Structure formats: structure tokens, C-alpha cells
# Entry
Amino acid sequence: MRRSLMAAGALVAALALAACGAMNDPLTAGSAPTQSVSLMLDWFPNADHVGLYTAIQDGYFKQAGLSVNVETPGNVATPLDLVAAGKVDAAISYEPELLLARDRGAPLAAIAAIVQRPLTSIVSLGSRHITSPAKLRGKTVGDAGIAYQHAYLDTILRHAGVPVSSVREVNVGANLVPAMLSGRVDATLGAYWNYEAIQLRQAGKRPNVIPVQDAGVPTYDELVIVVRENEIANRNNVLRRFVQALGRGYEAVRSNPQAGIDALLSANPSLSRRLQSASVRATLPAFFPSGGHPWGWMAPAQWTAYGNWMLAHHLISHPAAAIGAETNQLLAGQGP
# Structure
């Protein structure tokens, strides 16, 4: 009887995983030994990673025959370099950063989108009354000194008919919120609507938030899973199981956000529950694509448009950097 119960439990687990993909998706490892996948985060653990920690806690990776080792970067600029060098199997990164890496010759590609639209925004304190890009005229804007953020600001100002020369741009590094609170800048470009803006709101600062895609910048996937291109073929089965088990983690958060928040905080108890709870709930819609596509979907036309924008602004110099930079073949119901 015990054997029958164990077999039934394994069947239920297999069917549950299969439910998030096509009938023939190889989402269980069968009798093969557990395989490891090392994943480097883009930043410290936070609400964006809630589905990852849910997938770990709820055993979705284990059901898929995987052991996932999560690593936090010492420097946010290093995850893609570590993937390219074979030091880690996968990394969470950003669509623009991936295209920049490919332009330098890194053999990398995205296999799933975690956050389906830009988080980057123009954020300002409510007292500054910057409710539209047109109101940036004569203002000081802080950013992190990243080339494509400068290009975002240029695009936004031109789109709003604001003379670029009328706006002072200041590199404040990672100190986006302190720069606003101290009055050093009137607004920042680089703060996220689901993080810094929520911090300010919880501090009673009534922030004004303008997502960059609403101000003239082409939309893009903020966070994506990146691997080496040759691994898509060489470890297809492993990566497919990884992506789809991760997707199941995010689907579980959609069904029960509080349980997902608890999983994130359980794995990372130093995080602020108040901030992370608000951030998870605000970000939930951005974790999922529209149009009935499976979790992780990346729209090829959108990637092409954003790549063309980067080319036009001389952020990348090789058109091939944006060609084949993403693939949906590992997602549920996709691929051969």
C-alpha cells in the first residue's frame, strides 16, 4: 500500500507540472539523478524573485528533478560575464544589458522573461509636481550614469518637445532615493515604479511616477533569464524543466500572493515585509504576458523594435546583437 501511495504521489506531481506545459513537455526527470542549475540574481533578493523562492519552497524544481542554487552578485555588472565564462548556468538580467553583452560578442540569449515590461521610470516627490515629461524643463534629473538611461532621457525629452539643453542630468549612482529626498535632484530616471516609488509612497512622499514606455521609450522586458546559447541545445531538457518549474512558481504566486510573499521572506528574513508585500502585489500583472501566451513569453517584434532603438542611439553597433537574442522554445507548449 505504501508503494502505491508513493507512486500515486509521484504521478500527481508529474501531472501538476505537466499542467503548466504541453502534453509532451519533458517536465519530470524520470529515473535520472537530480541535476543542478546555478542561477545568479540580478540584484539582492526582492519581490521580482518571488516566483523563484515559491518554486523552491513548494518543491517545483525538485519535482522536475532539479536542484537550483541561487547566488547573489557581488557587483550587479557581473552576472552576464559569469554566465558567458561558464561560472554559473544562468542569470537574471535585463533586456538592454543582454543586447549590450551580445554587441561585445558574448554568446548569450534570453530563454524567458520574468518581468514583462519596463520597471524603469521617471520618479519625483509629489512636492515637485512633475506629473508629465513636459514638466522636466529646467529641472535636474538624476540617474545611475548608465548610457542607455541617458538615451532614455534624451528620447523622453525630445518626445515631449522639451529642449535637451534645458535639463541638467546628474549621475547619482545607486543613491536615487537619497538624491530626491535631499533635494539634490528634482527627479530621477532609473528608479523603479515597483520599488523606489513604493518606498517613497510608504514614507508619505506622494511620488509622481512616469514609466519610460509611457514617455516615448520603446517597451522592453525588464528582467529575463539568460544562458549561454550553446546550452539551449546541449541542456535543452534541463533548461526546459527549469523554466517551466519557475513559471509554475509565478503562477502559484498569482493564485496566492500571500503565500509567495511568505516564501520570499522565509528565505530572506532581513527584507522588509511591508515593502516586499506591496511590491509583490504591484508587480503581479507584469509577471505575465498578454494574448494567451505562456509564462515567460518574449515578443519577437518588441525585441526587434527595442534593438533598432539601441542601434539608432549608438548603444550597440552590430545589428546581429538583436537578432536571435531571445527564444521562446523552452516555454510551456513551445519548441519542437
Remarks:
- DSSP finds 13 helices and ten strands in the chain.
- Residues 1-24 have pLDDT under 50 and may be disordered.
